[in-house]
Amino acid sequence: MKIKSFVFNPFYENTYVLWDDRMEGVIIDPGCYESHEKEELTDFIKKTGILIKAIVNTHCHIDHVLGNYDMKLTFGCPLWLPEGELEIFRAVKAYAPQWGIHQYSESEPDRLLKEKDHIEFGETTLECISVPGHSPGHLVFYHSGEKKLIGGDVLFRESIGRTDLPGGNHAQLLENIQTKVYTLPEETEVFPGHGPSTTVGYEKANNPFIKGA
User: Fold this and answer.
1) Angle at CA of residue 60, ends 59 and 62, nearest 5°
2) H-type alpha helices, the chain
3) This prediction's pTM
4) Overall number of domains in the chain
5) pLDDT (tens digit, 9 = 90+) per residue, 27-52?
6) Which residue numbers delimit the Metallo-beta-lactamase domain (predicted)?
């Protein structure tokens, strides 16, 4: 599985394109908002020759969904959201102007994902793991064969997702990191929604918010 990351929008959000040797792939959390950001993402996908099978959100805070509408329209593919994020998703349109975002368009989801569902493209399968706390329906996507985790805003390098937004729960996030993320192999590479990648083992040893047992 190949992974290409982009940093988009004023929140410095990580958008990921995943694909494999069959040249099928998915876009995870398209945060592209400005026209040049949309062009950067679209040009990469078209020049690389990737057939986008779906747009997928780990969760639905504004910085992770800004490009949903345009990417769905551009690539003619479905939009998949975590089933527990619908309320969060619907709220974006109302509060976007408060963040100076006036050109947001909402897309209708085509599939609602839940724990133990699978995302498939080419010969690749990702498992959906439910890790609420940063947001109520947050999912992470795990490739067990290559030990790679698309982690959204759950776990960052030496940090964790904020829990002061609607639906956040600090104790729940810590518990789920411990039981859902830290139980993965230590060499698992974590690709977060902001900042550089890390590994489960590094965070268990160094994360000041929650270290491994």
Assistant:
1) 135
2) 35-48, 62-65, 68-75, 86-95, 170-176, 200-206
3) 0.97
4) 1
5) 999 999 999 999 999 999 999 999 99
6) 12-194
